[in-house]
Specification:
- By secondary structure, the chain is of the alpha+beta class.
- The protein has two domains: 84 residues, GMP Synthetase, Chain A, domain 3 (2-Layer Sandwich); 64 residues, Ribosomal Protein S8, Chain: A, domain 1.
Protein backbone atom coordinates (compact mmCIF):
# COMPACT_ATOMS: atom_id res chain seq x y z
CA UNK A 1 0.00 0.00 0.00
CA UNK A 2 1.32 3.43 -0.85
CA UNK A 3 0.98 6.49 1.41
CA UNK A 4 -2.19 7.75 -0.31
CA UNK A 5 -3.88 4.37 0.06
CA UNK A 6 -2.89 4.17 3.73
CA UNK A 7 -4.25 7.69 4.29
CA UNK A 8 -7.53 6.79 2.63
CA UNK A 9 -7.78 3.53 4.61
CA UNK A 10 -7.09 5.26 7.93
CA UNK A 11 -9.57 8.05 7.25
CA UNK A 12 -12.29 5.55 6.33
CA UNK A 13 -11.51 3.30 9.30
CA UNK A 14 -11.52 6.24 11.72
CA UNK A 15 -14.94 7.33 10.44
CA UNK A 16 -16.31 3.79 10.79
CA UNK A 17 -14.84 3.37 14.27
CA UNK A 18 -16.20 6.65 15.59
CA UNK A 19 -19.55 5.94 13.94
CA UNK A 20 -19.76 2.43 15.41
CA UNK A 21 -18.92 3.72 18.88
CA UNK A 22 -21.47 6.53 18.51
CA UNK A 23 -19.10 8.92 20.27
CA UNK A 24 -19.50 11.84 17.92
CA UNK A 25 -22.62 13.30 16.42
CA UNK A 26 -20.84 14.90 13.48
CA UNK A 27 -17.44 15.96 12.36
CA UNK A 28 -14.95 16.11 9.55
CA UNK A 29 -11.67 14.30 9.29
CA UNK A 30 -8.48 15.30 7.55
CA UNK A 31 -5.32 13.26 7.49
CA UNK A 32 -1.79 14.61 7.27
CA UNK A 33 1.54 12.87 7.20
CA UNK A 34 3.85 14.04 9.96
CA UNK A 35 6.94 13.78 7.80
CA UNK A 36 8.05 10.47 9.31
CA UNK A 37 7.57 7.44 7.11
CA UNK A 38 4.14 5.99 7.71
CA UNK A 39 3.38 8.20 10.68
CA UNK A 40 0.00 9.89 10.47
CA UNK A 41 -2.10 12.36 12.41
CA UNK A 42 -5.87 12.23 12.11
CA UNK A 43 -7.39 15.60 12.91
CA UNK A 44 -11.11 15.69 13.55
CA UNK A 45 -13.55 18.45 14.37
CA UNK A 46 -16.82 17.75 16.08
CA UNK A 47 -19.61 19.43 18.02
CA UNK A 48 -18.83 17.22 21.03
CA UNK A 49 -15.01 17.21 21.33
CA UNK A 50 -14.93 16.18 24.99
CA UNK A 51 -16.49 12.82 24.15
CA UNK A 52 -13.70 12.02 21.67
CA UNK A 53 -10.94 13.51 23.82
CA UNK A 54 -11.79 11.78 27.09
CA UNK A 55 -10.07 12.35 30.43
CA UNK A 56 -6.61 13.84 29.78
CA UNK A 57 -6.83 12.70 26.15
CA UNK A 58 -7.10 9.03 27.02
CA UNK A 59 -9.82 8.38 24.44
CA UNK A 60 -7.64 10.04 21.78
CA UNK A 61 -4.72 7.82 22.79
CA UNK A 62 -6.93 4.73 22.75
CA UNK A 63 -8.29 5.57 19.30
CA UNK A 64 -4.72 6.03 18.05
CA UNK A 65 -3.70 2.67 19.51
CA UNK A 66 -6.68 0.87 17.96
CA UNK A 67 -6.12 2.50 14.56
CA UNK A 68 -2.41 1.64 14.69
CA UNK A 69 -3.27 -2.02 15.42
CA UNK A 70 -5.89 -2.16 12.65
CA UNK A 71 -3.49 -0.57 10.17
CA UNK A 72 -0.72 -3.02 11.09
CA UNK A 73 -3.09 -5.96 10.62
CA UNK A 74 -4.27 -4.65 7.24
CA UNK A 75 -0.96 -3.35 5.87
CA UNK A 76 1.48 -5.75 7.51
CA UNK A 77 3.89 -2.91 8.19
CA UNK A 78 4.31 -0.59 11.16
CA UNK A 79 2.19 2.54 10.93
CA UNK A 80 1.95 5.13 13.69
CA UNK A 81 -1.38 6.93 14.09
CA UNK A 82 -2.12 9.85 16.40
CA UNK A 83 -5.60 11.29 16.77
CA UNK A 84 -6.38 14.90 17.63
CA UNK A 85 -9.71 16.65 18.01
CA UNK A 86 -10.20 20.41 17.70
CA UNK A 87 -6.45 20.98 18.24
CA UNK A 88 -6.72 19.61 21.79
CA UNK A 89 -3.15 18.31 21.80
CA UNK A 90 -1.69 21.73 20.91
CA UNK A 91 -3.87 23.43 23.52
CA UNK A 92 -2.88 20.84 26.13
CA UNK A 93 0.80 21.36 25.34
CA UNK A 94 0.39 25.14 25.80
CA UNK A 95 -1.34 24.48 29.11
CA UNK A 96 1.48 22.19 30.26
CA UNK A 97 4.15 24.75 29.31
CA UNK A 98 2.24 27.37 31.27
CA UNK A 99 2.03 24.99 34.24
CA UNK A 100 5.77 24.33 34.02
CA UNK A 101 6.55 28.07 34.07
CA UNK A 102 4.22 28.66 37.00
CA UNK A 103 5.67 25.79 39.05
CA UNK A 104 9.23 26.87 38.16
CA UNK A 105 8.47 30.37 39.43
CA UNK A 106 7.12 29.02 42.72
CA UNK A 107 10.10 26.68 43.15
CA UNK A 108 12.60 29.46 42.46
CA UNK A 109 10.85 31.83 44.88
CA UNK A 110 10.32 29.29 47.67
CA UNK A 111 13.46 27.21 47.25
CA UNK A 112 11.34 24.07 47.79
CA UNK A 113 10.73 21.26 45.36
CA UNK A 114 7.24 20.68 44.03
CA UNK A 115 5.75 17.43 42.68
CA UNK A 116 3.44 17.17 39.66
CA UNK A 117 1.17 14.13 39.64
CA UNK A 118 -1.20 12.53 37.14
CA UNK A 119 0.78 13.33 34.00
CA UNK A 120 1.07 10.85 31.15
CA UNK A 121 4.58 10.02 29.89
CA UNK A 122 4.04 12.35 26.92
CA UNK A 123 2.88 15.16 29.22
CA UNK A 124 5.90 14.66 31.52
CA UNK A 125 8.14 14.96 28.47
CA UNK A 126 6.54 18.29 27.51
CA UNK A 127 6.99 19.61 31.07
CA UNK A 128 10.61 18.35 31.29
CA UNK A 129 11.38 20.08 27.99
CA UNK A 130 9.77 23.35 29.08
CA UNK A 131 11.60 23.28 32.43
CA UNK A 132 14.88 22.57 30.66
CA UNK A 133 14.65 26.06 29.16
CA UNK A 134 14.19 27.76 32.54
CA UNK A 135 17.25 28.67 34.60
CA UNK A 136 17.15 27.93 38.28
CA UNK A 137 15.17 24.68 38.21
CA UNK A 138 15.70 21.05 37.31
CA UNK A 139 13.14 18.28 36.88
CA UNK A 140 13.17 14.58 37.57
CA UNK A 141 10.68 11.75 37.13
CA UNK A 142 10.32 9.49 40.15
CA UNK A 143 8.51 6.19 40.63
CA UNK A 144 7.42 3.43 38.29
CA UNK A 145 4.37 2.76 36.14
CA UNK A 146 1.19 4.50 37.22
CA UNK A 147 2.94 5.85 40.32
CA UNK A 148 5.49 7.81 38.25
CA UNK A 149 5.44 11.56 38.81
CA UNK A 150 7.57 14.59 38.07
CA UNK A 151 9.39 16.68 40.67
CA UNK A 152 10.56 20.24 40.01
CA UNK A 153 13.55 21.18 42.17
CA UNK A 154 15.59 24.33 42.66
CA UNK A 155 18.88 24.09 40.81
CA UNK A 156 21.80 24.24 43.18
CA UNK A 157 24.63 26.60 42.28
CA UNK A 158 27.70 24.73 41.06
CA UNK A 159 30.66 24.93 43.40
CA UNK A 160 33.90 25.97 41.79
Amino acid sequence: MNEAQISEFLEKTFGELVGALEIASSGSVSLDETGDRQSFIITATTEEPSVLIGYHGRTLDALGTVLTAIAYKKIGDKVSVRVDVDEWRAKREESLVSLARSVASRVINSGREEPLYNLTPAERKVVHTALGEIEGVISESIGEGRDRYLVVKPQKADSE
